[in-house]
């Protein structure tokens, strides 16, 4: 189960990700800058996104790993920002229906055990007209990129973190929301998707 794996590596998780930060942190900043109103971040991890949030939002954050969340709490305190943290799975969010104006997921759906259930939970807690923002690893548009880059990544990350970078999260988003904007980065290996909750 991913929770135990992330709890074990929490102390050096950021060291593992550091080589990718120069590519991903600008995208994290762009994604969370779009947050408005009462906002939930799913899978906040160690809180690498926290410094990018606008100052005028009401921020909630959940993660399935207690150890990762402890680091995120320390980071929020250092940044001087108020965040309401909860230990929770993306597939079972402890919030009422139609509660958030914005829900953000940053490099999470490659790890979520049940992506469809998690997407349904995002839709449930998001207000009608609210926005879901996804910054996710996805299968690219190039078979060569998938074969030479993503497949080797999966072979390493799946046993270590239950991480599958070959998921088609961008297609799953369309089943639940109306996509307003999609940006493809690095041949579609990473996508930033802004979607509106206006479907029944």
UniProtKB/TrEMBL annotation:
InterPro entries associated with the record: Methyltransf_11, SAM-dependent_MTases_sf, Thiol_S-MT, UbiE/COQ5_MeTrFase_CS
A GO term, aspect molecular function: S-adenosylmethionine-dependent methyltransferase activity
Domain of life: Archaea
SUPFAM superfamilies documented for this protein: S-adenosyl-L-methionine-dependent methyltransferases
Gene Ontology process terms (BP): methylation
Name of a matching Pfam family: Methyltransf_11
Keyword terms of this UniProt record: Methyltransferase, S-adenosyl-L-methionine, Transferase, Ubiquinone
Methyltransferase type domain boundaries: 40-134
PANTHER family: METHYLTRANSFERASE LIKE 7A, METHYLTRANSFERASE LIKE 7B
Protein name per UniProt: Ubiquinone biosynthesis protein
Native species: Thermococcus peptonophilus
Lineage start: Archaea, Methanobacteriati, Methanobacteriota, Thermococci, Thermococcales
């Amino acid at each position: 189960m991913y929770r135990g794996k992330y709890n074990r590596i929490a102390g050096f998780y950021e060291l593992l990700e550091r080589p990718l930060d120069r590519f991903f942190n600008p995208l994290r900043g762009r994604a969370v800058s779009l947050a408005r109103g009462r906002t939930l971040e799913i899978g906040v991890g160690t809180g690498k996104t926290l410094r990018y949030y606008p100052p005028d939002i009401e921020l909630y954050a959940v993660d399935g790993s207690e150890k990762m969340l402890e680091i995120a709490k320390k980071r929020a305190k250092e940044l001087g920002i108020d965040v309401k943290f909860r230990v929770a799975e993306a597939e079972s969010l402890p919030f009422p229906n139609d509660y958030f104006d914005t829900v953000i997921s940053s490099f999470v759906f490659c790890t979520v055990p049940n992506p469809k259930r998690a997407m349904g939970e995002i839709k449930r807690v998001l207000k009608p007209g609210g926005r879901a923002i996804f910054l996710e690893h996805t299968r690219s548009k190039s078979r060569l990129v998938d074969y030479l880059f993503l497949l080797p990544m999966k072979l390493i990350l799946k046993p270590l973190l239950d991480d599958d970078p070959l998921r088609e999260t961008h297609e799953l988003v369309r089943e639940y929301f109306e996509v307003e904007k999609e940006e493809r980065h690095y041949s579609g290996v990473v996508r930033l998707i802004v979607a509106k909750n206006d479907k029944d």
